[in-house]
Amino acid sequence: MKRIYIVSVILLMSISILSCNDGFMTRAPLDEVSDENFWRTAQDMELYTNTFYQTYIRGHGYSWAAGRVQPYGVNEGLAYRDVLSDNAAPESYLGITNNEYDSYNSGSSVGWSWDDIRSLNYFLANYKRGNVDPADRNIYLGEVLFFKAWAYYKKVKIFGAVPWLSKPLNVDSPELMGERDPREAVMDSVLNILDQSIEYLPAKGEEKAGRIHKDVALALKSRIGLFEGTYRKYHTDLGLDETKFLQASVEASERLMTEGSYAIYSTGDTQSDYYDLFSTYSYSDNPEIIFWKDYSTESGLGHAFARYWAQNLRHRFGATRSLVETYLASDGKPISVSPVFEGKDSIQQEMTNRDPRLTQTIANFGEYNLTEGAMGANNAPVPNIPGLSGNTCPTGFRVAKWYMNDPAEWDRVYNGIQAAPVFRYAEVLLNYAEAKYELGQITQSDIDRTINAIRDRVDMPHLMMGNVPDDPALDSQYSQYVGYVPDPLLREIRRERRVELAFEGFRWDDLMRWKAGGFLEKPVEGIKFVQEQFPSVVTGSDVFLSEEGFIRPYAETLPNGREFDERQYLFPLPTEQLVLNPNLDQNPGYDSP
């Protein structure tokens, strides 16, 4: 496991070298790095590539991190992406979740910006100019290929087919007026350069402090392979075979599982280990973390994540009932069939006899231990639901995961130093299990090495292939909102992924690749409202309830619930680009100029 440790002075130098305006694929080469005095040493290459760490490995962001990630419209930071999924509900619903997203004029406002790709290609066009030892030079080549693969993976997730650019373009380059390259060709290229990256990057332990190594690229390959493979399988209209990418995910995962020294973090404390994994200042001795972002005072970096995640509650969000009901009962059975599940008459009741990750992810009333006097501590006994003062938790399910129970971290304001895991081993295990299932190769041994190894951290019963529990409630939801019902074993693999990776930014991508966006239409509900717990809150005025008495945060703003349309699996290309280049075609379901 390695941390990101980049001296702030070098970061500032690299940013000044490469800073550029958003949206201009045609920006000419920057004079500062185009003269003959650059590219002569390995230090030049290191200086150039430093900025890509800040661009692509955001962690909890920097300083206030008040910007929004486009086109998703959520705050920067890996924990916030779930706000646009069915895992969480912000006070004001996001248009992206309700089919209200249309073409925008500005390319940067929807992610159609190519400056970073151009900077990566500029390196590829120039890195051989100096008389640098190939062994040293190739390390930075491996880094750039890694970041280019990651950059294109993100663009394909947003737009599907995109132009594949292999060189920095000038204002008169004919490629500027080209068509989008087919998704198949682009993703084949992504896989190809990622394999080259794995070849060139140093082995774990041989890299410079804070820089990526082979295992990081293998983890990205595991992720990309699963995404593209399952996207192709469930989006049958693409007509693309999924096998190569699923196999790539399996192969990359297997290398990390057999060649690496990773393990699920556990001290034996089933009631706190999962929570503790996300509330720490350092991962230097954590066997689960493949790569992490360090914000220690020595790094010169800082963020306001701790202050805003729990105190100011950016997006003013709460977890959804949909997520809470996904967690199994303590006997390993879904709550719809478990005899030990006590019911839903209060949050205290429904959190009893559950997977321990539930109460380490969602704060139970009065039981989550917040330091007395810390900002936000008054939200621990009961959350600030509508009708109470303070920053609102609209569902009543307040998120405990990532909460840093240290007043000193709150007092650091925008110089917070809570560490951010970028790639962790649990995701690799989940990728492996799902890819093996989708290939028709899953065995009980595979389940034991992955799903059950993860469950052991919280002492949950093992998943057994010959005894997969029924879940008629979740199957019914698949049928109603998604249009298909997965095999019970696959359903449980997906459940494990949702529970283990909640609020780490995976859920939206999972829904998109499974062609399960219809889950966004499931009514958004919160806690069972108990008047005695909120004596001053008025129903029908402050809060609105479902027939079962659950809080409905969008009862007035979306009385008919959210709407999901097939077009939402991709985003629209910006209108200005379609006008400038008539050879670009708009994605289905969106207006063209």
From TrEMBL:
The keyword Signal belongs to this UniProt entry's keyword annotation: yes
Location within or outside the cell: Cell outer membrane
SUPFAM superfamilies: TPR-like
Domain RagB/SusD: 292-590
InterPro entries in alphabetical order: SusD-like_N, SusD_RagB_dom, TPR-like_helical_dom_sf
Family in the record: Belongs to the SusD family.
This protein's name: RagB/SusD family nutrient uptake outer membrane protein
Organism, scientific name: Fodinibius salsisoli
